[in-house]
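Justification of computing resources. Each target in the renewal requires a structure prediction run like the one illustrated here; the chain below, 478 residues long, is used simply to show the kind of job we budget for.
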Amino acid sequence: MDGLDALMLARIQFAFTISFHIIFPALTIGLASYLAVLEAIWLKTGQRVYLDLFQFWLKPFAVAFGMGVVSGLVMAYQFGTNWSEFSRFAGGVTGPLLAYEVLTAFFLEAGFLGVMLFGMQRVGPGLHFFATLMVALGTLLSATWILASNSWMQTPQGHEILDGRVVPVDWLRVIFNPSFPYRLVHMVAAAFLATALMVAAGAAWHLLRGRDNPPVRLMLSMALWMTLVAAPVQAVVGDLHGLNTAKHQPAKLAAMEGHWENTPGEGVPLILFGLPDMEAEATRYAVAIPRLGSLILTHSLDGQFPGLKEFPKEDRPPSPIVFWSFRIMVGLGLLMIALALWGNALRRGGRVYASRPFLKFALAMGPAGLLAILAGWITTEVGRQPWLIYGVMRTAEGVSAHGAAQVGFTLALFVLVYALVFGAGTLYLLRIIRRGPAVDESLHSREGGPGRMRQGMRPMSGASDDEDDSPASAATGA
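Resulting structure tokens:
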């Protein structure tokens, strides 16, 4: 920790904890909606395969939900421990928004989660489906309130500063701030994509192992349809979000693009790759396409937007980090579109479940959605620097009065505990997916219809000690 002050260590600690936290809510958002769709189709059609998948993915959902709650609580406490000055200054806005998230989303999820997880044999199918819908709605409401709070920090409005504190004067303007709609849709679409890619990777793994059965095929098919729809939509939303950023956070956009200054009468090139140098105020070794930056960000070949040199040095975000995190996010998004298009082409030829190169690609793309989310959040949060509340409060003004040794010690503890707890949880989650959905036809014959089930609903029942990977054992769910 030598050379790092308390401010930088507090920032690293928050970045570390939020990086863990955001993964699990993203999965619960996507999986909750996926489970609602599966149960709805099962109730409508009576086809057992949809219930098989519902019962199977309910276990990973439960594990991800639990880890998301735990990591969220830890992260929330840091507002009082490491960022007490920020809480004192802006608590009049952020406090109520987080409270609304608890009173609406978390209570809704908690109220119906038990019915969803354990109630299929105890309540009627209609009530159980209603519980599933409420849990899915709760995850979306949670994202709405959290993103309203974070978006206000990016594009603040609807407030006044009285006696050194932020006071909300128009809650509708606070919640529906300029960046909120784009960020909400962008995040929800990202959660759906991350879930679809994880489901597709699970199906691809089983198909590559010779476990070709109806539930696995359906997993891959539904995941590819979601990716085919959501990935292009995400690209469009991302473009609109970029235009919004150009209007309200031009320094962040300039850092993302590695753009330093305009040449009179010329359009701005799109820099594909390069090494932004904050000291030299230039992007070295730039590989650029002339005027394409103008076309994308101003929808004109001659349009211009501010370069980093137009902002004081103390107001410039660290371009090297933002430049590359943005390109990682975009590059992964393009690979998602390629995966969806390739899968759709193979579907037409009836080869989507047998093409080993495609299945290996789908398997490799399993973590791509979560990595893209992390890259996007790095772009968003680092690109806001040096502001904690954009244009209102600097990050250095919001940190608590702790010493570097104190913050460094807690950061080391976080790394150790998170590696143990969430490492074990992630391995267990992957083990559940590795087992695959059960397809015991003899049990199908004893099935009594909606409200009856055959797979254990405790998350710990999702991973067996049986490690037999043979196709024969997989066909019986072993």
